[in-house]
Amino acid sequence: MGLLVRVLMVLCLAAAGFAGGPAEAAKKKQKEPPKPKEAWQMPMTMTIVRSFAAGCEPLCPEWIAAEGEITTATPARFRKILKLAGKKKLPVILNSPGGRMDAAVEIGRMIRKAKLDVAVGWTNYAGCKPTDKDCKLPKDQKGIYRGIVYTGRGFCNSACPVVLAGGVQRLSGPWAYVGVHQVRTTYVQERITYQEKYRIVKGKKKVISRKEVGRKTVKTSQKDGLDKSLRKKLLAYYKEMGISTDIIDDMLKAEFKTIYRLDLNRQEALKLVTSRGTSDLFTSNRACLSGNEAANCILDPQAAGKAPPKTGPIPIPRQKPNVSLREHGSRATPL
């Protein structure tokens, strides 16, 4: 009887397999197209953005939108954007999961030297985004994008707070997420092959030329935590920026794969923020009210008679950092 039941089950399963036919099987084989990456999942882009908010022209706030992972190339991009900004004192609006600590320190120092403000938030672009491959701005915009800043679901994690620390005024607000964790250092051992040309002069070898002809990775290793050199560098940096060095102790409270959230009270205690305000203080129409215009309110006399750029409603994408988060004193799920 048991054998008969098993045979019947096999026959039923076989029949179910044929029920869908070739078309059903073909559908299963087709892979879903990969979802496009969000800006924060890519290497950091830096753009100058002018507010697209209704009623701000001809005097609108402008800012530097810095979104994505901090890489070795990010400091050079920041220098380029500062050159494009010229004499404008534009705040930096950060939205980043972190990245290279040494690059973050370099950018933070550039921000402080330029006497710029920094806030946590994300830019919702009107029209095309800098991450769009076919994005071409109209010539009359002169390389300046249009957009609106949102604080909710904005985040600044890992090495990003190092950049935040560079601002003269520093804001995050109650709806942004700021977090730290242990640093992960990757050690790479390489074997490099050189080709040398030399001659013997009076019995001694004299190198005429030397060039690299090959490079091969022999071994890689990773270590979590702060070594003496990096700790010393971060201590010096935070002291220079006027930030409590207790932030380094907070970094050690979370493993590399998690994030230790610094709530707004903790950020104030560390002097990581200068007030409880949000990026709105720099980027909303209120920043450009008559008689109290912020330094980043830029007048465009020709804009008063212009029609706004043709674009539909600005969609608000969901910001979801791909990281496990740990609240200051409690557990939290990803935003």
Describe this structure in words.
The protein has about 325 residues and is an alpha/beta fold. The protein has 2 domains: about 40-185 and about 225-330, Alpha-Beta Complex (2-enoyl-CoA Hydratase, Chain A, domain 1); about 185-220, no CATH class. Helices cover about 25% and strands about 30% of the residues. The chain has 9 helices and 15 strands. It has helices spanning about 1-20, 20-30, 75-85, 100-115, 160-165, 230-240, 245-250, 265-270, 280-285, and strands at about 45-50, 60-65, 90-95, 120, 120-125, 145-150, 155, 170, 175-180, 185-200, 205-225, 260, 295-300, 325, 330. The strands form 3 sheets. Strands 1, 2, 3, 4, 5, 6, 8 and 13 form an 8-stranded mixed β-sheet that branches. The longest helix is centred in the N-terminal third of the chain and has 18 residues, at about 1-20.
